[in-house]
């Protein structure tokens, strides 16, 4: 075995956690919902029905495109079901702002789950990255990696808390247009910032002689 062989560099978290496609996919139904709701001039609940239909149609179109590109059917189906569920909630309550209710609940639950994962030393970032790299749970036998993933996971807790701080006041005010705008613009930005922050937080937690996230010790 060649001791001088250089190990391949660690992949960036951005490449492991996905690119821009997911953000675009999630934004299309939201933009359609808000645009149609704001533009359709019909007695209530006409705008809500048209907006919900547009959101679901947009999600179906996105799903068809991603399936044709070879995306995993399970991921595509989850995205489509999420939009359909959001539309169903809004139609059931008759309140357009409730199209965003499931996302608010999901953000709160996600913040809690990420926080608990850090406390119990099963940081979700490690679970996700370890799964992508095919390591299963081998990374948990490496105390340095566990500590690094714990530290980096705080960035994800923070972004869910920021989401709630932005979304909850707008939801309570019933401001559908601003909810849609913030959802479309802020969510991808917050995810991007979390990815950018996670990598240095993780790497600086590892000792200088650590072989990297591909090679748990």
TrEMBL record:
Membrane-crossing ranges are: 21-40, 46-68, 75-92, 112-133, 154-173
Keywords, ordered alphabetically: Membrane, Transmembrane, Transmembrane helix
What is the superkingdom listed in this entry's lineage?
A: Bacteria
Pfam families reported for this sequence:
DUF3159
| Protein name according to UniProt | Uncharacterized protein DUF3159
The taxonomy runs: Bacteria, Bacillati, Actinomycetota, Actinomycetes, Pseudonocardiales
């Amino acid at each position: 075995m060649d001791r001088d062989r250089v190990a391949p560099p660690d992949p960036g978290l951005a490449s492991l956690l996905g690119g821009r496609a997911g953000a675009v996919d999630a934004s299309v139904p939201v933009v359609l919902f808000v645009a149609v709701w704001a533009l359709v001039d019909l007695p209530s609940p006409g705008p809500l029905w048209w907006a919900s239909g547009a959101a679901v149609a947009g999600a179906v179109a996105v799903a068809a495109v991603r399936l044709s590109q070879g995306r995993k059917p399970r991921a595509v189906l989850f995205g489509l079901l999420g939009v359909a569920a959001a539309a169903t909630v809004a139609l059931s309550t008759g309140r357009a702002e409730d199209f965003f209710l499931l996302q608010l609940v999901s953000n709160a639950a996600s913040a809690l789950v990420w926080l608990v994962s850090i406390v119990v030393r099963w940081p979700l970032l490690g679970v996700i990255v370890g799964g992508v790299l095919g390591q299963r749970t081998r990374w948990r036998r490496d105390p340095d990696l566990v500590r690094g993933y714990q530290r980096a996971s705080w960035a994800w807790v923070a972004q869910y808390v920021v989401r709630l701080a932005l979304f909850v006041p707008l939801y309570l005010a019933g401001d559908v247009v601003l909810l849609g705008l913030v959802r479309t613009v802020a969510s991808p930005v917050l995810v991007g910032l979390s990815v950018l922050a996670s990598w240095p937080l993780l790497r600086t937690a590892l000792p200088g002689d650590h072989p990297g996230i591909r090679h748990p010790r």
